[in-house]
Design a protein that fits this description.
Blueprint lengths: L3 E3 L7 E3 L2 E4 L2 E16 L3 E16 L5 E6 L4 H14 L4 E3 L2 E3 L7 H4 L1 E6 L5 E5 L13 E5 L6 H8 L4 H11 L31 H18 L4 E6 L17 H9 L7 H11 L4 E3 L8 H10 L3 E2 L7 H14 L3 E11 L2 H6 L2 H12 L3 H5 L14 E8 L6 E11 L5 E11 H19 L2 E5 L7 E2 L26 H15 L10 H4 L2
Helix pairs in contact: 1-3, 1-4, 1-13, 3-4, 5-7, 6-8, 7-8
Bound molecules: nicotinamide-adenine-dinucleotide.
The site of nicotinamide-adenine-dinucleotide has 33 residues, from helix 1, helix 10 and helix 13.
Length: 520
Amino acid sequence: ATPEVLSGYTSVKVFSDNAKVEDGFIISDYAYENAIVKRIPGGMYEVTPNKVDYQFKVDMKVPKTGLMMVGLGGNNGSTLTATILANRYGINFRTKQGLQKPNYYGSVTQASTLKLGVDEDGNDVYAPFNEILPMLHPNDIVIGGWDINSANLADAMARSKVLDFDLQRQVAKYMAQIKPLPSIYYPDFIAANQSDRADNLIDGDSKWDHVQRIRRDIQDFKAKNELEKVIVVWTANTERYAEIIPGVNDTAENLINSIKTSHDEVAPSTIFAVACILDGVPFINGSPQNTFVPGCIELAEKSKSFIGGDDFKSGQTKIKSVLAQFLVDAGIRPLSIASYNHLGNNDGYNLSAPKQFRSKEISKKSVVDDMIASNHILYNEEKGNTIDHCIVIKYVPAVGDSKVAMDEYYSELMMGGHNTISIHNVCEDSLLASPLIIDLTVIAEFFSRVTYKKTDSEDDFEKFYPVLSVLSYWLKAPLARPGCEPVNGLNKQRTALENLLRAFVGLGPQNELKLEERLW
Ligand code: NAD
């Protein structure tokens, strides 16, 4: 076969027998190789390689896309909006360090690279992450959304105290034009201390009316801005957990009925999720609560609508998902992880209430579960199957958005020795989280353009499974397909994403074999 050139879309041209361009789509052939393992009593394993041939089809046209944030007037919402405007309009600003140009540091899709392969000398060659396939650029995203507080985004940005004044001064005129849509407020779900903010609310008590209203808001936003696609991200306050009650939120049908009868246990975030799912709008939950109750996941399955969650993986947990994995993979046995935080922004204020803190605690704790399960030499019935994992969050108004995280990893070494690693981390919380919203939006939009089929099947190309676990890199407590264990390790998450992107252009998975160097 003549190799096709996949060109004209990005700076990367791929010549591969396994991929071709047809009518604006890349169609690639991919042999998915894995190994099936059978555990045999007595500690033996039987491993058989297997291979399934898939075809992937990627729509190369990037649609005009809108991002609607729930919690638009919060620290993340206002910081992200100002950042996008500053980048879009090329607004430089002065800080005490000198002139600062806008950028998207902290965003994997905008500020990191992918290894493409090696040059003639066998040295690695990298390209920007968003150049291997056509992806949405944040400067082109149309921003909108909801907030229970009526402040326009210029005021919201000033209230957040995140960005330098000279930048605030220059973007204020654009920001002032953006006003959050009224939202849904069920006081029982967020901390009582948030009630003062609630001055921008959708009328009425009917939860089903609320679903319909949110659907209309999305449709209106789409029509007004002539958008082809909308992504919705929950970056509003952390809610308490919803109780899972049989007959109420356990199945799609029960959940819809419970919304129709305005049942108390249906949270605002679930109302937003359901509204999006019913219209096939991807919905991502950036907070820790269990928005995706079982009935909500079933509804997404039935509607084949994308969902992703939970809780942005920004600082402390991101390090944990690297460091704990490293320790366990190095054969060192973490015994305890103590994670302490203090912060002084509105998120911290909300989390100072016990039920909302509990949601965060659960989300932060789950991150090492799969690492423990991966190593039965270190974790077993005799030695113990757990890590003592303690999470503390305190509200200290003075530090504002500059969150302080202190972590202590206490581990067992060879011959009963011990190792303590202490980490002290300070940074503007919202400058870590906002780029994740970009990545989640860009990748969710991208995957909504990807379809696949088994090569030997007669079936049509189909969308990926609705729970978009490829987003896990950016999420603390990754939502997984029911019955599947979530993957928390950051490196595994990134490897999966990179290799999928490679598969879509007819390249094999990334390996670091480097035989050019190692063999004669
Ligand atoms: P924030 O308190 O500054 O902003 C939240 C906004 O949501 C507020 O403006 C509030 O008025 C609004 N809100 C509350 N309930 C709402 C509703 N029902 N509908 C619409 N708006 C509503 O918080 P933030 O710092 O921007 O963080 C947002 C969320 O992201 C929090 O839940 C936080 O836990 C989560 N998160 C943040 C980070 C981070 O690093 N900043 C990391 C992980 C998760």
